[in-house]
Every structure is written in C-alpha cells, then in structure tokens.
Amino acid sequence: LALTNSMPFHLMLMNCSSAAFDFDCLAENFLRNPVGGAVAALGASRDSYPLSSWRYPDYYYKQLFQEGLTRPGRIVLEMRQAFAPGTDAEGSSRWTYLIMNYLGDPLLDLWAGAARTLDITAPAAVETGWQQVDVTVRAGVQPVAGATVTLSKAGELWSSGETDAAGLVRLPIQPLSAGAMDLVVWAPNAFQETRAVTVNAPAGAAPHLADWQLDDDPALDALNDGDGLLEAGESARLVAQIANDGLTDAQAFTLRLESLDPLLTVETDAESFGALPAGGAVWGVGDLVLRAQVDCPDAHRLRLALHVEDLAQQPLHSDTLAVIARAPAPVLAQWTFTDVGNGDGIWDESESWRAAPRWVNLGGGSGGPLSAQLVSHDVDLTVLEGDATLGPLELLESGAPAPGFLVQRVNAGVASAALLSLTDAFGRVREDSLDFLAPSPPAGLGAGFSEGAGELALRWEPVADADLAGYLVYVSQSSPTAFTRVTPLPLPHAGISLVGLAENSETWAYVTAVDRGGFESAAADTLYTSTSPPQLAGFPQATGAASSCPLAVGNVSGDAGLELVVGANVLYVWTADGNEPLDGDGDAQTLGPYSTAVRDVVGAVTLLPVPGTTYRRIAVATRDYGGIAERRIFLMDDAGQVLPGWPRPTLDWIWANLVAADLDGDGDDELAALDRSGNLYAFHADGSELIDGDANPATTGIFRRGLGSYSDGSPAAADLDGDGDDELVVMGGLGHRSLHVFDGDGSELPGWPVNLDPLNQLPGLKESRPLLVANLDNDPGGALEIVLCSENDSLYVFTSDGNRWPGWPRRLASGGGDLMPGPAPADVDGDGDLELFVLEIFGGGASRMHLFQLDGSEMAGWPLDLPMHAECSPVVGDLDGDGLFEVIQGSEQGVIYGYRSDGTVQPGFPIAVGGEVRGTPCLADLDGDGDIELLVSTWNRRVLAWDFSGPFGPETCPWPTLSGSALRRGEAGRWDDVPVAVNAVDLALAADGAARVAWRVGDPSLTRWDLERRRRPAPGASWSGALRVAEDLRPDGEGWCRWRDASPQPGEELEYTALARRDGQRVLLGRLLVPATPLATRLVGAHPNPFNPSTTVEFTLGAPGRVALDLLDVEGRRVRRLVDGLLPAGRHAALWDGRDEAGRLQASGVYLAQLRHAGGAETCRLLLLK
C-alpha cells in the first residue's frame, strides 16, 4: 500500500480473508503501511458468511460507542464470550467464530467520543524514600473514574493504579535517587497527560540499600554449593551496598536484617558501617547471615527487611526485598532392568536382575549428593542389594544409580509391592510406592501429515490404567533399531508434535506407557514414517483464489532462468526464488500476478515453444469470469501481454488440456483444444484457424463439432502414422462413445474411429481422463499405442491402427467426478517396456493405485489401496536419486502421496498441504541446480515447492507433469527440453577419502566452469570464505565436469558451488559431511546410478576382514562377483562394466549389488539404462 495519512485508523474487515494473517493479507498491508494506513484491524481470516458475520461489527461498535469500552482487547474478549454459546455444532456461526481475528495492540485506546482534557492534581516534587502519593483526575469539574495513573522512574520504580469514583488514586513509591519521575494519566476519550515530578534529595543524610548479593560459600556451611543461589536448607551471607543520597554526611550506622517469612531464618542480624560521605556508597563485608528452611518450596519468594539504624538503634531508613529460594523436585521417570542371570531377557524364577531407577529434577536446586533405597514389601520380591548413590541433579538433569539395585522375583507376572526412597544431602526424602508391574502398552500409534520440513506429529490411543503417569516416545532416523528417547519425562497426553528432525528422512518411532512408579510398558508396534522435505526459499506463495490448475515450468519471461506458471483468479508467474518477473497487476502488495486480462483459469497451463529459442509462450483457457464472453483461449508474450490474433473465443469453456502439436508439418506447433460441448479447435500460433472444420466463416478455429457433451478428457498428440506430422487423439464426451485419431486436415486415420459402446448400453459413457500415446513395447519401428481410461470402467490399450492390444482392456472403476486422473508411463523394471501407473477411483473416498505391466498383470507390491479421491494425475520421477522411480499422487483430501516403484512409501511422504490438490503436481528443476523440485498448486490458495536430491532429466523424470510435458501432448518419451545450467550432480566421498565433485551441464552453451568451496569444522560452526579451488573445467563427452578434492578432514562439512564463466551463473552443487567417527562396515552405493556402460560400487570396512561383493539380478541370481577376499579396513571400490562372469553384456534393468561380510549382508539397487 502507499497510503499517506497522519492519523492512522481502525479497520473492520469482516469480508472474506482480509485478515488471513497466514498469508500476505490486506489487513497486514494496512498495518504495515510505512507512512500511514491502519493502526488496528478486526476481520476474517477465511470465508465470511454474512448471516453470521454481521453480528460481530454490530456488537463491537455497540461496546465501543454505547458501553464505553475503548480498548479492543477487552471488546474482543467480551465478544468471544458472548458468541461462544451455539458454536459447538458445525455451521456458519462456528466457522465465523473461529476465523474472527484482531490484529493490533489489544491495549490500544480508540476514540469513541469528543476528546476530553484532563486536569491533574499531584505534588510537583517529592523526596527520596518510601511514601504514598495522591493523584486526583478531573475533566473540568467532574471527577474521572477509571483513569489509569502511572508513576515511573527508570531503573527504580513503577507504580500504577486506577482512580476511584472521586477521581483519586493513592500510589506507593520509593524513589532511591534525586532526579525526575514520569507521571502519565490516561482515560477513555481523553488526551493523555504526561508531566514530570521532581525527586529531591533530603536535606540531611539519606543512607539506603543500593544493591545486594548472596554468597553461599561452602566455607560458611559444608552443604552449600557456592552457586550464588539460596537453596532450601542452605545458609548465605547477604552482602549489601549502602549509598548516601542525602546532602550531608551520614554518621556511623548499623544495618539490621529482619525476616518477614517463617521459612527464612536470620542467623546473624546486624552489620556495622562507618561514616558515609554525601553521595558516597560502600559495600558491607557480609556479616549478615540468613538460612532458608529445608522445607522451603522451589521458587518461593522469601521476604526480608533491611533497616538502617543509628548507633542509638533509631531507624533512619528501611528497605524490603525478596530472595527467591531454590529447592530440588526429583520425579521418578523410568526404570531400566538388566538380566544379570542367564542374560536371555526373561524374568526366570529367583533370577537376579539389576534395577536402576531414573529420576529427573524439576526444581531449581540440586539438594547435593543423593542416596536411594529400595525395600520390598512382598514375599515375591527379594532385594539383594537395596542401597545406591548418585550425584547431584541440577535443573532438568536426569540420573540413575549405577549399577542399580539387585533384585530377584518369584513370579514376574504379578504385582510386587515395594518402597523406593530418595534422600538428598539435607535429609529431604521422596518416597514412591511400587508394584513392579508395567502398565498396558499404548496402541494405535500413527503420524499426522505435516507440511513442515523436519516435523512429525504423533498420536496414539490413551492407556486406561489407573496408575498411569504418561508416555515415553522414542525416535530413530538412522535405522529401525537405534532409537533415542525424545521425552525426558512421561507425557501426560496421548500425542506429541516433534520439530527439528532431519528433513525428508525415514523415521521410526515407538511409544511406551509409564506408571507412577516409573515402570515402563513394552513398546507397541514400531511406526515407520518420514519427515517432509524442505521447501525452496521464497515458497510457498499465495494465489488470490483457489487453484485447480496444473502448473508448468519454463522460460516464459525471456531471460536465462525458469519460471513457474499457474492459473487461478488471474495468471501467476514466479521465479525460482519466489519473486515475480513483472508486476502484472501494478500492485506492490501482491506477488506473482502476471496478467489480469487472463481471469478464472481452471485447466492446465500449456507452454508453446518458439522455434530456435528456449523461450515458451503461455497458453491458457478461461472459464466464466464476467459471463460467457470470457470463455477464451489466450496466448501470452514475455511481457505479460496478449499476442496479436489472441484471445480466441470458444463456444463453451475448456477444462481439458490445450495441446501443442505440429499438425501441419511446418515445424511450428499449433494449439488444439476440446471444449465441454464437444467442439474441437485448432489454431496456428498467430491465432488463425488450422482448417475451417465446420465450414462456417463466422467461426474461427473449429476443427470438428459434435464430439459429445461434458468433454473433459484431455486429447493427446503424436505422429501415429509416421508421416512427420502430428495427429490428434480425441475421445468424445457424453453421448458420443467414440475414440478418434484426426490428421491435420481433419480426416481420420485408417481404423478410426473406434466405438466403445456400439450397442448403446452405456448412456453415461464419457471420458474424463487425459489420453496417453506411447511406444509401450519398445517397438524398434516406433509404433505407438493409445491408452484410454474409460468411464465404462475399463482401461483400454489400442494399436495405432485401432486394434485392441492383447490382454486389454482391464477392469478399472471410475467412480470419481467430472475430472479424473490419467495414466503415467515409466520403464520401472528397466526392460525397455513401459509400465503404467493408474489410479482406480471407488466411491466413499477410496482409491487403488495400480502398476500394470504390458500384458495387463500387476507388478509385485501392487496395487495399493489409498484413503482418497483425486482429480489430478500421477507423476513419475526418481526423487531421491537411488535409481528407482517414485510415483507422486495428489488428492482431494489435501494430502500428497509418494510411493517407490516396489510399492513402499517414499521417505518424505505423505505431505499434508491443508487443501485439495486438484492440479496435477509437477516435477522440475525450477532453480537450475540440477536436482528435482516438486511443485503443486492447491485449493487453499497456495503454491508450494519442495526440494529433493534426485537429478532432474529425461531419464530420471519420464513423466514429470500432466500429460508428460508442458506441451500437454500426452506422449511418452517426448521430453520438453528446457535447458538448465546443471541437470545432474554427483557429490560423494570416494573410497580413498577424497571428495568426488561432478556435475552434468544441461545447457550446451556453457562450456567453461570454475568451482568454489567453503568449509566449516563441524555442522553448525561458521563457514569459511569461498575459495576458488578449480578453474576452467570443461565438460567431457557425456557432459560432465569432474574434480577431485583430496583435502576433506574428519568431522568437517564442505560446500561446493559451480560458476559458469559465460554468464556468471552460480549453481550450488550441495554439501558433503565428512564422518568424524571411525568408518563402519557398510555398502556406500554406486556411481553413476543409473549408468551406461559402467558404474563403480563403493563400500567401507571398519576392520580388516573377508568380504564378497556380488552383482545379482532381480531374482537374486548372481551375475558377477567383483570382490572375494581379505581386505584391510578403510574405503574400497570395484568397477562393474555391465558384463556377467562370461563377459556377456547384460540387458537394461534393475540389478542388486550385495556386500557380504562377517557382520551380515547389505544390498543396494543399480539401474542399467541403454
């Protein structure tokens, strides 16, 4: 905003979302206006319902103008209390109550009437020392009740109160030094009055307490710990500083100490001081001694008085102060039991076990060394060693005696009564009654979905045991066995939200129950889940309305970088750092609007190539904003302007994709579209029509009419007849029943159309899923197949001449809505044939994800049942760089699912986004660093971008977006080649301890590179300055720049950045953490992976020993043995050239590297691509 107003105002914004403070909302912009704007705002953070919302401003202003409440915080509090009844049931009253928010200072004073001038009666001057001051407030001749009066002096006093009906308030004060106090008076609808009250030094001497310290020296008492704090049971010297603020010298005097609390004992109550000159100050020697009683509770304020007396014991001055006492508060948290009998972990009859209780100190005092005693009250329990000791426990420290008590039990399955006591150095005793019986384990452990990186919300079913104390939570992010307890004390509730975990990581967790005796249950089943990945800097971004638009990534602004394009209420474009390439709406308070001429975009963004450039033009269709005239197709330039010849009107609005295809073979792509009334369009890039398909000069762009109604299934495009021109594959809408393949002149290829319901048995048949064209069987001649998910509950595969593919169709339920997900192809098993990820939709919020092979059978591990519905389609890529593909699927339930190709959950998923994911997600390298970002728009008006480590490219992301590319052709293998500076990174420690630094150049014009390195001694330490460690590196024949860093040191972290010499572009390659601990025996992995023709398998040995390294096929048969023998400890590597033991080259596919050693065996997956 650019408001200029000298008097900021208060806003009432109960319209939709104006106070949505979790976004860049209107209310915040008014408040943050630098030279004016608003000082406070009351409004709604989401959809506002008029029938319920009107009551809030009505009540608010009645309280302000009629009831005299001028402070918003008080009004809002009373308003919430007044409207709380009736909000327990779902409805607009409850929703409005929950979204009403006040932004501003709750103690702000609002004008609600004519301003009054206050008349103040107060002393003009006072002297130092304790006293009471009367202040009277009037407006004219009328006393003002309820006025707030405050006296303050920096560093010395603050006293405040409200006037009574007579306008009078009496404030106690004790100024310590001469100077001035501030007197401030406020009352509703009145000008605030401020004046100074002079503080004078007294004419005579004025000795008083200026400062003090406590000294709990162990020389004073052996139980003192010397930490400067007074703990219960300790004694301490009070060392006082006395200052004389009077105008004359003070004669010799005595400082006398008096306890004002029964829990404080004064052991030495007097200290003598000599004469003190005016303006002087002196510290005592510590003759005053006090002691806190042993039973004093923690954080108790012990009040005492210090009296300054002359030598005749006449009082000269008195001061009061409070000393906060500290005391221990040990809590029994847990027991650890160790089988020291036969060691099998089972309580055998009369077998000896070690039992070690763990206490946590919740108090501010330690209590000194501790002794513990365990006494049996049951014949079933024998205590062989019942005494133990442990050191002092400071605040929040935990400790257990070592090795603990030695006990035997006759029957471990029944309760055994016992008493555990803990005694500190002061004789305080904590006792806990025990039953030696663990509570029931908690059940139903689950993880709530979280958008935040490194966060995890756990919930479980409560345990109903009467003596339950709470729950302990254990987490591991390294393996399913190495757990760490993350709760020092039992949680009193059945859930916890964890933050600060490693991002995008596999995570295991389990929960135990603990009773009041500290006995811990067995663990319920271990939960396997993962934390969410991090988002790109600058994201998430907000759209002005809900978005169902599948976004696209490309160079749309004509510069060197890539942009993200998405439609909603208007067209939005952001750069990789979340900025806007241009201010398309002329509004500084918004970020992202690219063109306000394009409004109400629901279908996908298509990017139309410009031949000979990396630049892409934005093509979108609009719906009904402003009426039927807004149903148009737009083509935009790099300045956010509509290109000449555009927009083109359509007879109905378009939900299906706009398809970029070269239908006339001239080398330029045309734009094809199918509207919801079955009208098929085709335009040249200049907006002219490809053919006059309806023989009507009054229309432009009609290619074919009469393709049914509710035509929402997206067409596909490919060269199906091998003539060099693209054909359009179109399935008709309701009432049409036929699948077509159109040539660019409007004719159909031989064998087409194919009627899916020749007997007219399916009146509701239509197509709502995107079509797919693919060379499914890797035919050497390039023959293509067509895949159709039809609403007659069948998944079809046709050859390019219209025949059925053997083994198809397959039964596939289609119980979704108007728009449904399409198939996603990928060569999952590396055999050259394509497999199909297809989501089957049932009723009742249930779906099933399939992975079909070419013959129609399912891959192992599939299908998967999912509790969701979806409009968006799946995308496929190798997000983590392990050589295997993952499938990503959004949902109507606001959750993004991710699964490996073997059917297991991909770490980092599921991700909750808080709103429906209706636009198909997109995999791209938006920031140009070579790895994958997952981008998605949501129905709750957000655009999110998560960063993954897998390399981005056509081999690793075979189906990265809706219909395979931003061209929306639906053609497998047709990669929309958007050059990026770096499209793959290989950063790892080699077998000899050196750092392997390599990156594959994606833009062939970038031929010369430099490399910078930063280092720090450990994670969390400060980084060194950037050092240029390599210059003028050139890509090899495969496009890789490579460098070897021999300098890594144990425990340090290294960061590498590549610099393109041509344009200075910087690409952060990543960070490498060098292990600080001795090497463990493990299989590190292989590089490159995927590979062709060879790869290097690396492993480490923590100690010398015999190892075998084998290459296996997916059935577990050995293909080649690479290593077999004794090796020293350290890093090792072996090269596999893709051949078996006989020297025969192996086919493309998945292989397993298996390392066998004395400690077991490990495997990793390899992908050979040819």
Summarize the structure.
The chain has 1170 residues and is mainly beta.
What does this structure look like?
The protein is built from five helices and 84 strands. It is mainly beta. It has a five-stranded mixed beta sheet with strand order 5-12-11-8-9, with no helix packed on it. Strands 13, 15, 17, 19 and 20 form a five-stranded antiparallel beta sheet that branches. The chain has a five-stranded mixed beta sheet with strand order 14-22-21-16-18, with no helix packed on it. A hairpin with a 5-residue loop joins strand 61 and strand 62. It is globular.
Please describe the structure with a list of short key phrases separated by commas or semicolons:
1170 residues; Immunoglobulin-like; 41% strand; globular
